[in-house]
What we know:
The complex is a heterodimer.
Chain A: H1 3-14, H2 20-32, H3 34-45, H4 57-74, H5 79-87, H6 91-99, H7 101-123, H8 130-151, H9 156-166, H10 174-186, H11 190-201, H12 207-215, H13 222-234, H14 240-248, H15 255-268
Helix pairs in contact in A: 1-2, 1-3, 2-3, 8-9, 8-10, 9-11, 10-11, 11-13, 13-15, 14-15
Chain B: H1 2-5, H2 9-31, H3 34-50, H4 61-79, H5 100-115, H6 118-129, H7 134-141, H8 145-180, H9 184-189
Amino acid sequence: MKCEQIAELLPDYLQGSLSPGQCHTVEAHLEQCADCSEEAALWKKLSLLPVDQPGPESRARFEAMLQAYQASHSNQPADDSHWRKRASVWNWNVFHWLRSPVGAIAWSAALLAIGVFTGLRLAGPKPPSLDLAAMQSELASMKQLVVLSMLQQQSASARLEGVTWSTRDQQLDPQVLSALLHTLRYDASVDVRLAALDALSRHGRQPQVHKAILDSLQQQSPLVQVALIDLLLEWRDPDAARRLQALQQVPDLNPTVRQRVEWAKSKLN
Amino acid sequence: MLQVRDGAGETLGVLFDRYQTPLFNFYSKLTGDRALSEDLVQEVFLRILKYRQSYRPGTPFRAWIYQIARNARVDHFRRFPRQTALEPEMLPPVVPTDSAQEQQEVELLQRALGQLPEEKREILLLCRFQELKYEEIASLLGCELNTVRTRIHRALQELRKAFDQLAQGTMLKKAEAARNIPPQRGRHEV
Lengths: 269, 190
């Protein structure tokens, strides 16, 4: 058999999905043909490549993302039918579910909703308009959409404006948070990165935001790095010494940044 | 996955444990950038949460998750055009193995893989490391099964070429180095 014909069978042979007869044909060819057998050998060698492990903080980031997502979705009206469905399950199951983190969030949302409802009933004769709530949520999602699309613009000034827009809301939406973190690390313009840092640092009290900001310390822009070092001191981060040490060990660190790290370390001590 | 789709957020944790390392490797071997790979893995799981209703039961889940993974990477590079190409220096350090020759081969293989055009590197990663079936890859890339076979074969051919060239280069360097080292005996005599 010629190499071209074998080439059609080789991928299936390598994945072990050929019939015994075809398998035999390919093996007979491989014994004679150095080119094809080298390819097969290389395929096997690919399994030697090491499996990289993601960093240990990856799981914590995932948990934070999940919680932020669930928190932002648990106060939607859909919860009610969910509750009714749950009520028909065994008592023990319900109890177990209530103890889980999702249950806890739903509990808090339900209690909050009851509190707000009772409060409003007692305070004013008029029940709150549902339209108003719907409009508010629509407005919030519009704002989010505007920020996300502006952050994707080609022009740096448009992206800068997007970052400024994101600061109009007190609450940080998880999607906007992730977009801002991306901007902080990878935006082509240093000004946009610095603005993103400024916008993000307003939410520095939330532990997952705090951590994600400081995780971007190892990046391309020296100016952003210096700003991050200052933030590290300002927030009195408990992990500051370790982070500075890690940054100092980067081989081609910008001299100004290195100087700032030294300075920051002397301040810490 | 069906539980995730129907709203059980905790189940996503199980998926995360199962898929984070394969996805991370897919990205890190493709881009050579660890921090970016970690970000993209997080992005994939955020998208799974958001778009979980779009998963149709009965369809292969792996193909669906890798579809999301590819889209996340494309979106990232559309927003942040690449500044640097994949450098061999950015690849993870090779873990010492039993034999020095094996270690050298792994190193050469990593460099050869880094030299391939991205679509060829991707298809090799998908079938060899992510262990996707050819049918899954075909539906992922939106092409015929036979096209997948041809592409894999071409990618493998190109990898072999790159690997052979690098191996020859290393051998030449070694020969050169051997010529430049003065004989051991001479040093003792001085």
